[in-house]
Every structure is written in structure tokens, then in C-alpha cells.
Amino acid sequence: MAADRPTLEDLLDDPAVSYPLKAVLLVWLGRDPVDAANDAAVLSAVMEDRAARVLEGRHGP
């Protein structure tokens, strides 16, 4: 684990963290951490691709 990354508890306690992220963290807190990490990696890749399409002007879903 990287020393500079916040913990799950840090994120939940931080008022600057968005409500949607906190909601996901709370739901995923009870999951198998390996499954949650794998799902988070997939979600990250999909959202990065979507953000790139939006920035390029291709606004599909």
C-alpha cells in the first residue's frame, strides 16, 4: 500500500470527498476487499474512457 494514499476511513471522514464516492465506499466496506478492488479498477477504466470521449467531443453514454 502506498504511504501517501488516504485510508478508507480518511476518505469517509473528509468533508471534501463527494457524497457519491462516500456512498460507494460505505457499500463496498462490507465486501471482499479483493472483489471490491477489482470492481474499482474496472470502474476507473470505464470512467477514464468516458471522460476522454467527452473531452474529445464524443458525448455518447
Q: What percentage of residues falls in helices of 4 or more residues?
A: 55-70%
Query: Low-confidence parts lasting 5 or more residues at pLDDT below 50?
Result: none
Task: Tell me the β content.
Answer: under 5%
Alpha-carbon distance between the two ends: 33 Å
Rg is 14 Å
Can you walk me through this structure?
This protein has a domain at 32-61. Helices cover 64% and strands 0% of the residues. The protein has helices spanning 8-13, 19-28, 33-55. It is globular. The model has no long low-confidence stretch (mean pLDDT 92).
Topology:
Elements: H1 8-13, H2 19-28, H3 33-55
Index terms:
single chain, 61 residues, mainly alpha, 0% strand
Write a brief caption for the model.
Helices cover 64% and strands 0% of the residues. With 61 residues, the protein is mainly α.
